[in-house]
Protein 1
Amino acid sequence: MNNSRQDLTLYNAHFIDGLVKAGVESAVISPGSRSTPMALLLTEHPDIKEYIQIDERSAAFFALGLAKVSGKPTALLCTSGTAAANYLPAITEANNARIPLIVLTSDRPHELREVGAPQTIDQNRLYGTHVKWFAEMALPDAEESILRYVRTTAAKAVYTAKQSPAGPVHLNFPFREPLLPEYDGLFERLETDRFPAIHLNEGMRVLPQCEIEELAALLQGKEKGLIVCGEQQSEGFEEVVVELAEKLGYPILADPLSGLRSGAVYSDLIIDSYDAFLRNDRVKQEAVFDVVLRFGAMPVSKALTQFLCRHAGKVHCVVDGGGGWRDPIGVATHMLAADESAFCRLLTSCLKEREDTSLWMRNWIRINQGAKAKMESIGEDQELDEGTLFYEILQRLPDPSALFVGNSMPIRDLDSFFFANHRRVRLLANRGANGIDGLVSSALGAAAVTSPLYLIIGDLSFFHDLNGLLAAKLNGIKMTVIVINNNGGGIFSYLPQAAEPKHFERLFGTPADLDFSYAAQLYGAGYEKVSDLSSLDTAMAKAERADGLFIIEAVTDRVKNVIAHRELWEKVSQEMNKLTAGDDFWK
Amino acid sequence: MNNSRQDLTLYNAHFIDGLVKAGVESAVISPGSRSTPMALLLTEHPDIKEYIQIDERSAAFFALGLAKVSGKPTALLCTSGTAAANYLPAITEANNARIPLIVLTSDRPHELREVGAPQTIDQNRLYGTHVKWFAEMALPDAEESILRYVRTTAAKAVYTAKQSPAGPVHLNFPFREPLLPEYDGLFERLETDRFPAIHLNEGMRVLPQCEIEELAALLQGKEKGLIVCGEQQSEGFEEVVVELAEKLGYPILADPLSGLRSGAVYSDLIIDSYDAFLRNDRVKQEAVFDVVLRFGAMPVSKALTQFLCRHAGKVHCVVDGGGGWRDPIGVATHMLAADESAFCRLLTSCLKEREDTSLWMRNWIRINQGAKAKMESIGEDQELDEGTLFYEILQRLPDPSALFVGNSMPIRDLDSFFFANHRRVRLLANRGANGIDGLVSSALGAAAVTSPLYLIIGDLSFFHDLNGLLAAKLNGIKMTVIVINNNGGGIFSYLPQAAEPKHFERLFGTPADLDFSYAAQLYGAGYEKVSDLSSLDTAMAKAERADGLFIIEAVTDRVKNVIAHRELWEKVSQEMNKLTAGDDFWK
């Protein structure tokens, strides 16, 4: 009944070589026994870079961060049992955020399932609807037809994971003992010539020319339009959407994850302070648009969402190359499944050149600049509340660099304080399911393929994935973590329950009283605590020189922070009232 | 469309009161927004003790440990999205280990699902085949019929979770904003009189009398029988199985989790060194039995499993009150779905009294005592290898106390070195899926309801659930953790790959180089490092006096440890050869 060592070896080697031929370059491996053949052969393959993380939950988020930045499917490998269950949080995020992952779980063979054998759970469709494809693999065998099958399956897994919308796929491998393959120098000897690699092209969705022309005619008649851009993955999108905006005379409301707030595309039609000025009632009410063209995921800003909702009934086109239904507010009038860049290019080519800048466009630029000027006044503060801190850190990011931000407050502060600029700062976050989990690991996975990388994260979220830090040491990765430690869940202070003190701190504030200098020592990271701008400068300089992990801890106050944010929004709002006073501002 | 505050309040309050009336006493809550109504009302209910843990993965294992020791279903509550996904590892363990959990996830309402809304994943049947029951709940409503429905559903959830085999159930609650219920003093005002509590009795499986009598006749004719006991949950089992063994004249091979190795049932027919002496070829071959009566889960010992396999074809009865198919080695001849205690009582009453102790029984006692004497000689060692350390710690456990052990090596060392005794030491482990994850939290959940509690755990496993430590501080729980730090995965040194150094340390040894004194400081725990018996004494005494968490770190060596274990087994094997020499030992 046992498979021979040759069956085990060739089956796994050809599968892994199939992954490589289909474009997989990295694998994140967690230690285990059942996964032995795959782990040894992934490590042995000259074209796979392997990363190790002991905690499978962190390993999966690491793979997600790596795939997010590289754009290439990353393989994940673990042993049987709860190990595989630990992948679920990252898999749900990958599925929602459209990140290609190749999840490989090893399993007991069929005769040891559901009979009380150790370390055995039902791994069949373990991730339910949260993967794009599941396959239960055949037992190891070195027959020609089986080797062809594993190579084909590897290619199909990559092809499926990459097709828009990209996402995770799951293959479950039953392995019998003995589990030790031949591996030393195996890939030099492996005969792969008789298996030609399969050329893969995932294609893209486009609209027929007539539909584009109709849309062009519709838009050309509408002066008051908005382009809204959320996180998207279409190549070259930033340039072509700016070109489209110029031709239409529409401002672009650009989410921080849209790729439009930094880099070569910098233009004043990129509106970056809308989250502040759309809190003003007059602007919300009077800036009435006729049409919205929306690309990518729904932006982070709640003020923007509420503004779009308020004027429901206008033409609202949702363009998504992944064909998803991205309309949580139920305002879409057009659902267009089309690659975002291709769509912009085609539409632009159907539009007439504009002679001048419209009043509409000039007004959006004016209120944006007015709001931004007030927001930037935060830089004059001496005390480091979270807003000031965020603003100051963003000023100090090197060019080029990457910034990963946590969910809950950091992504919202990024939205408020990262103003459009020429610098090449790549902004990253986990906005598929917006969890506070797995962020250290996601950032480290990203840092494995882009450097320098900074992570700004709250204390609860940092705590949630402290284990993730181990990957820096085990794989020699450099990263700077800036922990904004307000000792608890800052976002709850903005919710209605904050007004009622009973149970608030126990259930929502949840102060953990953690001194992260000990976490730094545990994981061999550099560490600085900052309390003012000069210590921030020193810490950022030290972090830049550090070889590996560096942790900067900034202690802030949840209550003061809410007050400071509200004061700032109030200042912006007053400025908006001044700027848009009179009846003819929007006329 | 929004539900009124009254709908939200009454719906949740009656559900929670329904849980309490059905026997739920504890809830483990992780902070979140969508779960606000349930969190506030669980905390407010006077008969629910709530525990807080920020990391949902740890929270779920905490609930599992608590339910394991209390025997009562524990509620678990989290917000929407990846938070809920983090429960999966503990849920798979609970499902395999038969632990009743009431998993409550909060969710976006239907109109916000699969339309790109934030923090939203498909939570419908999120845990797949790993829960006993899933229900998507109705929206909050205060109609009489709906209040009756939520109370009934609460009772049904508890009833289902507790029915043998016990396990987790999952209820998913869609909540619309606003999420803040009335709660202050609510349960004093809540009118529950018109909803009488439902009396629940989960019943038990029993065999018809004729089947018991046939079995009694079969067994009475067979002198050479064995009783094998693994982990089981049938009340009062320990006493009745010893009585049965005495009447049959069969030795009991008792797994450490069977409940038979300590306490009032102590008897020399409880065989506790079989993992050592069944490695001896002569014993394995010559101790031929005619019949096996097996209760509970498959024991930990691989030597025992192989011995049972070797003599496949003999009468082998698997008795399981949960009706599971617990036979990973495929040797069962009788599958009997019957409550273990009831089965023993009925069978005993059908058997005749024995006059004397048979040679068969005397032989098992002789070899057990011979092996044990050799095993105990480990206590004479000066150096603390893992075996010695384990043996010495076990000698020092207070009476009464509870001991939770980690998977991989600790459970195997417990099997080797915890000899049957009179002390009341409750032995606990997570042997459903045997993961190395979630053990700190499982032990802390157990420590919340039984004290003093000790956890012995390896360094990789301790690392995996470091976050679990936070619950000690947040909930004021006392526990002593003894970390056996051999800097990596000790169990891999016993596997074939240990013979091949290439990739071994990177993929399997995985040294993390963690100094856990920093983890102790991070979580405000007491800490001692031990290197010999006298420092172990000091550390154990300090731990006993400590108020909260105390961590004892013992640094050992993976390579030396394998050698020491093999030497010890060799010593036992030689002793067995001597003891059983000649042809007439078993005759």
Protein 2
Amino acid sequence: MSQITAPAQVDTFPRLGWVDELLSPALRAALAALPPDEGRIAGYHKGWCEADGTPTLSTAGGGKSVRPALTLLSAMAVGGSAESAVPGAVAVELVHDFTLLHDDVIDGDDLRRHRPAAWSVFGTPAAVLTGDALLVAAMRVLTDTQQQRMAVAVKELVDALLELVEGQSRDVAYEKAPEVSVAQYLAMAEGKTGSLMGCAAALGGVLAGADEVRVRGLREFGRRLGVAFQCADDVLGIWGHTSRSGKPVGGDLAARKKSLPVVTALESDGPATRRLRTLYDSPDALGEQDVALARELVEEAGGREAAEREAERQLSAALRALSRVRPAAEAHRQLREIAWAVARREA
Amino acid sequence: MSQITAPAQVDTFPRLGWVDELLSPALRAALAALPPDEGRIAGYHKGWCEADGTPTLSTAGGGKSVRPALTLLSAMAVGGSAESAVPGAVAVELVHDFTLLHDDVIDGDDLRRHRPAAWSVFGTPAAVLTGDALLVAAMRVLTDTQQQRMAVAVKELVDALLELVEGQSRDVAYEKAPEVSVAQYLAMAEGKTGSLMGCAAALGGVLAGADEVRVRGLREFGRRLGVAFQCADDVLGIWGHTSRSGKPVGGDLAARKKSLPVVTALESDGPATRRLRTLYDSPDALGEQDVALARELVEEAGGREAAEREAERQLSAALRALSRVRPAAEAHRQLREIAWAVARREA
């Protein structure tokens, strides 16, 4: 990452208390407006309450509000107020939670944010309906904003949703496909993760009244950052720890997920690639030893290094796009800090 | 139904070939824009193709486009063209299909439009994702319309979606509740069925440029009609035939559904009500004989008559609201014809 200089502090996600202070009341109001059962399930999903509705003791959990932070800071970056962008911040966070709820149903993942996924606690029907409710609530938050910008904001969100669905569809299809190329993988990641982060940043610009060129720059910034995040997340899915990811160690390998390191390793050539292919092609379940072996083979075939390099390339592209927006200095500094943390999957 | 005169022909749903001619290309274009797998599943759900994508031989199936017909005729009723309202017609039909796909997952219903429900053919994950895709496609169709009216149209749809989710939530909760009142039932039916039919009619007005008062009248017309439809549907769910409803005979009773005839019968007093309560309270599955007995008891306790009367009352209210819109004569005639057929559950 020679051409970009890391900020002094990149090992932890920057503390953005003011983001939560702005976001939290509006987000809680949106959840409180849901039907009671779906509101409780959404609250559990966010880590605000236990399954029976009792408030949780810890104030942590519920993710780090990366997307809302992008929205609020993007508004400030183009000279607007963070307050003006709160509806956008709430909308992207609600959409994010909608995708998590439905994705866990679709993928059968039973761990989310260090707790049993909502569907495994409340059942699939309840998780589906709660996801629907969150998506509709997101649309509602935007349609309640000032009418003139509302139309553009809604269009921005709907475009992102279309890409999200397309990305999720590819993801599901690729799990069954015999071969997936790196190019296909990146297109999927752009749809599944890039589109919503791009939308988060763009909405900040839209709601602050920025012109189309700057909105496009912000969208590109968020979109590249999203892909960087997904690449880093894939590395974590193989070499990370449950304590950080909230997911089982090596789970991606045990499930034979075609994540970026694996796809790259399989596209390579050599003894490690051939052994990895045999392991992935075998119809048997992968035991603990197989997973450990697969992990070594992916690394040997260059999958880890390639994924880390891709994350860095995407981060560079994101930061270049951001610079072209000519953002206000303080917002620029904070957005760069977030970008570094996100691209290292600290968020 | 003394105060309203039935049109000459009410026993079959009016043939509205022109509605399908206007709707079909736009609806097919919307489905063609979906990711391939979700497009195929949506096509199967609509009866356009088999599970493997082969076009079906029959051109029937896929429902009778009641909601799109309401949208197009409502536009004409306020002096606009049917063409101007096509995006609204497509949007409500896509939302309707979204609700059917997710509702079948949520309720575990495995028969839809005389065929196995999509989730039972393609799996729950695929049905969930296809539903999501249809909802997003509906939003997209509206955001692609002329910007000035777009904002109002989107708001109309989002408001309906909120009510839909609320109605579905109540429906799920009531299935587990020990007692449900007739008032609770009607509020649920208004959310689950009335909101989208109300939206269908209102969108026709909005897209034709009608003023708020007439849009409100059209919304009320569609909303009452939706509740009438639900009441009639409940009667059919107990005394109807599979050939007409596409659902198993007596299925609502076997599943102990708290449909309007049952709710009314249980709210009554007398020997039939008491025997029905015992039957519904028993933890055992209801066999064929129990279902036949329950059917008789609901009728004896006045549940059937009350539901039929409620359908008529709602239809009267719908037609009164429509008259207040002072609709154009020909559109008025056709809307009345549809209303009669819908309220008798011919659609």
